Amino acid sequence: xxxxxxxxxVLDWDIDGDTxxxxxxxxxxxxxxxxxxxxxxxLHALQHRGQEAAGIVSYxxxxxxSERRQGLVGDNFSDRGTIERLAGRSAIGHVRYSTTGGxxxxxxxxxxxxxxxxxxxxxxxxxxxNALSIRRDLVREGAITQSTSDxxxxxxxxxxxxxxxxxxxxxxxxxxxEGAYAIVALTNKKLIGARDPLGIRPLVLGELDGRYIxxxxxxxxxxxxxxxxxxxxxxxxxxxxxxxxxxxxFAEPQPMRPCIFEYIYFARPDSVVNGKSVYGVRKAxxxxxxxxxxxxxxxxxxxxxxxxxxxxxxxxxxxxxxEMGIIRNHYVGxxxxxxxxxxxxLGVRMKHSANRAAIEGKRIVLVDDSLVRGTTSVKIVxxxxxxxxxxxxxxxxxxxxxxxxxxxxxxxxxEKLLAATHDLEGMRKYIGADSLAFLSIPGxxxxxxxxxxxxxxxxxxxxxxxxxxxxPLSDLAIAGPRRLAMLAEAD
Length: 491
Fold this sequence. Notes:
Number of domains: 2
Largest sheet: 7 strands, antiparallel
Structural class: alpha+beta
CATH class of the largest domain: Alpha Beta
Number of strands: 21
Number of helices: 19
């Protein structure tokens, strides 16, 4: 079992180190006098979707302006000088999470290129599962790439299109790519948005002061006081210009299959994704988990922050007190704990601590959103015991993750997923809990408001639990599953 500090009440490890991580968030606004400042505020609201880098591109009187930085939005886009350099009444922005490929400046989005029909800036949330195949062909034909991001493939395809108009070139590119994506793009006259044919990644349309916005989540609309209009449909391109909003279908109609993890973990609790309150779904998940996997216990404790709504639902359904048994210090930022190993160790000791007064002598139910490698769960259980818990019953508010993701979620290769290599009892012993239970797949679908999972055509993208991938995985033949999963983390 992995070693843990003997400190009883303070956690000397990073509770975020073994969680799923999202890939990116996007934001765009057209025709507003404060376009770049509003975009920066929108990116603040989307910071949970990516913390490694951020960028904004604006357009003003024939010139595109770009500011791309490593680090958090607030560290890079809060000063007046930066916003003033991003002149113009239209802008798009991006927050990025990456691991492999590195958070190097050339990978930070939005990416920009001059096409024959004019400049095009692109920001992308998701992962293209045929990007390696396309890139290989492009390079063989003489293309010069400037990044390791699959987003650049979209720019190359648009540049090589024979279509006369830039929107047509953009659609041409979309019709050649596979995978999961929500895209915002900026030209000299238009703001363009696109959502993949299955609607795996979220994208919404909003309005502020009579000007239109495209963004990943409704929480980004709320922070700027904008009005939600509707979700962008799967397989739809939205074109925003001085003439208004135009909708174009670029793919054959088919049932939508949004990513189930947006509801379990990724989206902010105050967002509404495809008409469903994320907070409401997470509480419903907790209630289903309590029905399926009750425990003889005294209190329910969430693993902060993502486990809180599910733990609330569990506690309400089980009739048990809800207690904050782990306290998170929100004032310790990532930039503080990054520079050296010594400082990192000091930083994580301040980040989370056990609330001994709530835990000592109690039988507790710990509720977390997911279990990936299991290393974090080991440490959480040990921390609870060190703080005096009599029993620790671990409940996971999702089914076991047994397959990797290739659509932009940071999951390890299959042999490193605990649920893929251990049975339930083996997992329980590994993490050291008195009992362990996961939400079932039928229970998850009930929490989503579905009577049952449609086995022939599932209502959600749930391949991490089922192995049923919703799109072709063309690059598997080139990269293999491990490399493709690593590339999926980059954008």
